[in-house]
Amino acid sequence: MEHITLLIGIVIVTALVFDFTNGFHDTANAMATTISTGALGPRVAVAMSAVLNLVGAFLSVEVAKTISGGIIDEGSGIQPEVIFAGLVGAILWNLVTWLAGLPSSSSHALFGGLIGATVVSVGLDGVNGDAIVMKVLIPAVAAPIVAGIATLAATRLTYRLGRDRSPEDTAKGYRAGQIASAALVSLAHGTNDAQKTMGVITLALVTGNVVSPDSDPPLWVIVSAGLAIALGTYLGGWRIIRTMGKGITDIQPPQGFAAQTGAATVILASSHIGFALSTTQVCSGAVMGAGVGRKGAVVRWSTAGRMVVAWVLTLPAAGLVAGAAALLAGQGNAGITAVAVLAVLACGAIWMLSRRKPVDHTNVNEVGTQEPVGAVTAALRSVAPPPAGAASAAPEDPTPAPSPQQTPTPAAASSTTR
């Protein structure tokens, strides 16, 4: 019993570490567009998001029940070391995608880790296939599409309603709207994502016979999970904020308002019915919809394509790492210790790599850090009309080259390209 008690403690700590990585990995969901448009300063934005994530953790436990008693069969002989291995797989995938600046799904990393570790340890009978399809896979496909279409329509409606007013007149109001909608997304994120860690901890308590099956998360579990995700959110996942705010499309305040409102609606609706969907996929789909919805804006499809690849790889990649960890952890105390040591070393290596080109609140909005324009983006930009009020030369009518006597100075050349 002492062994199980110690192991459950290790699982709880590891789950809270995952919750922490979930917080800074998903900060961009709520605050990337708000920061990129200047509606809030970076530090103020992440602080507000952290507080609301904590509040959201207390609003519902439906998603936690889906994790603790839906995806994994509690009666299949799952042991705490299996959950530990699943969490290790999820944490490592979160850190790898954070290092790459890709807004992948922390939720799917967790699901993939738990599924992979369970399959290796007890076989396919340990997972509930119907629950995975209905409450994970279908929402994973539908949620970003629904959020994208809703935001596209909202963006076009927003610009239509404000077409007779200058952008300067409406920008202040839209920035205020962005702050309110970002607060709603943060609240929704805490309601959905913090519950996933609550569900994992509750599952560990069930496997150790500490609480009975089908129990709600104890209050201390809710509090600790809310605090962990809030702390991670406050530190800010600046690499992913840069990608979401600047890498997908150039966001203006009306677009940011539409994207965040649409995303928050989808997330809150899913939390109410117990769908443990990915807030990252929802918010990314909403940002893409906002880009398509504004006339003259072009989505950087090369970035979007890399994100989709990361989404597809998340479940199997986290599952493979967790499966390998489960094999090692199944060898007893020495195996569990080896998994813990290897995980710490891998996390340290990823952190050291991130220090080579650090991204923080001081450079998160630097324009020069955007990726080069890809072939698809260039083709779309060549046929897309310019934004309202913008003056730009047509692609098919380039500016004639200056004569040798009129060669511009470097400063003049740079001014003509801005």
UniProtKB/TrEMBL annotation:
One of its GO terms (molecular function) is phosphate transmembrane transporter activity. InterPro entries: Phos_transporter (IPR001204). It comes from the Bacteria. It is found in: Membrane. It holds the Pfam family PHO4. Keywords: Membrane, Phosphate transport, Transmembrane, Transmembrane helix, Transport. This is Phosphate transporter. It comes from Streptomyces antioxidans.
